[in-house]
Amino acid sequence: MSAKSLETKSVAIKRKPRSETRGERVPPQGEGGFDVNWYPVCLSNDIRAGEVKGMDFLDGRVVVFRGENGAVTVMSAYCRHFGADLGVGGKVMGNEIQCPYHHWRYGQDGACKHIPIGGAIPKNARQFVFPTMEKWGLVFAFNGLEPTYQLPEFPIPADKLAIRTFGKIKCKLDIALQATNNVDFQHLIILHGLDIEKYPEISFHKYGLEQKGMVWRDNLRGGGAKSTVDVSLTGTNFLMFGGDLAGMNAYMGIAGVPIIRDGISDVYTIIAVPKLGEDPASRQATETVLGAIEHWAHALMIDDDLPITNNVSFRMDNLLNHDRYVMQMVRYLQAYPRAHPSAEYIRK
Ligand code: FES
Ligand SMILES: [Fe+2]
């Protein structure tokens, strides 16, 4: 698709009958469950072997603990006995977590393994355990009984990349709506000051979308530097983009999780660049590139976008041709499966 084609082609946008006067919306997370996604819970470094931490997650509370075997578990926080919070005074004992109240112990599979006062272990004495994995220095939990998709890989093997992962940026707009930014070409041009030389090829699939081969020049803050970028959305909460960013080969992942108690999304950022070498000077040069990409991402996402998106009441109305992919993405988000199998376990 050329820049010209987006400006001149007229595309009829099919609308559903509307019930609101201000246009279509995506139901907020929590309505009908939560999007069935891999969600980031915390940084891997936050949980060393033998440690447990309590976290807000979706509309409830979980604990994250790491056993002596190094495996990390994300589990509902409230004990299936009298509901004590395992994140407040709970202890990791070997590969099990011990409740602070009557010292029942739960294994990494969620089942109660030991009741010190004695007697039979009730068969329902079982915590909810999320499918859990670690990747790029983050602990991820899947909102579902079984993962339905895998997170993507950066296009360069992990051992050839230097990776910097950090959190948490607080977004008041749900991450899925924040992600519509990437197909909102009006705002790329008008807000971020990008001169788009080539629009991407865009394709939607069951668990995400791909945008291939966008070329822009950054006139606002990049002195006209040219970038060639691929973007993908996986699920509704994981963005990956990168390629040649103003002459730097770099990649970025953005992962968000809704925290209903605070009305926010916690957003984690992963920056990856090819290692320039293992000697001290090359490592230093690699760190410099990582820092430059972090600075660039901060300028675009935090300085430009957040003051606006944190206060937006997101509705789609009065659409222009430039908005058609945002509408397509809203359709994708509206159709995306939701579930909440842990609801009875993690809510207070
Ligand atoms: S409340 Fe956890 S063991 Fe009793
Ligand atoms: Fe943006």
Q: Estimate percent helicity.
A: 10-25%
| Name given to the CATH architecture of the largest domain | Alpha-Beta Complex
* DSSP, total strands: 20
- Main pleated-sheet profile: 8 strands, antiparallel
Shape descriptor reads globular
Continuous helix count: 6
Number of domains: 2
C-alpha-based Rg, rounded? 22 Å
Percent range for β-strand residues: 25-35%
Q: What top-tier CATH class of the largest domain fits best?
A: Alpha Beta
| Structural class estimated from helices and strands | alpha+beta
Which ligands occur here?
FE2/S2 (inorganic) cluster, fe (ii) ion
**N-end to C-end Cα span:** 50 Å
What pattern of helices and strands is seen along the backbone?
HEEEEEEEEEEEEHHEEEEEEEHHEH
Enter the CATH topology name of the largest domain: Naphthalene 1,2-dioxygenase Alpha Subunit, Chain A, domain 1
CATH homologous superfamily placement of the largest domain: Naphthalene 1,2-dioxygenase Alpha Subunit, Chain A, domain 1
What is the residue-mean pLDDT, rounded to a whole number? 92
Runs in which pLDDT lies below 50 for 5 or more consecutive residues are 1-10
Please tell me about this protein's structure:
The protein is α+β, with helices and mostly antiparallel strands. The protein folds into two domains: 38-142, Rieske [2Fe-2S] iron-sulphur domain (Rieske Iron-sulfur Protein, 3-layer Sandwich); 158-335, Alpha-Beta Complex (Naphthalene 1,2-dioxygenase Alpha Subunit, Chain A, domain 1). Helix content is 18%, strand content 35%. Strands 12, 13, 14, 15, 16, 17, 18 and 19 form an eight-stranded antiparallel β-sheet that branches. A four-stranded antiparallel β-sheet has the order 6-7-8-9, with no helix packed on it. A three-stranded antiparallel β-sheet has the order 2-11-10, with no helix packed on it. The chain is globular, with a radius of gyration of 22 Å. Residues 181, 187, 192, 300, 304-305 line the site of fe (ii) ion (FE2).
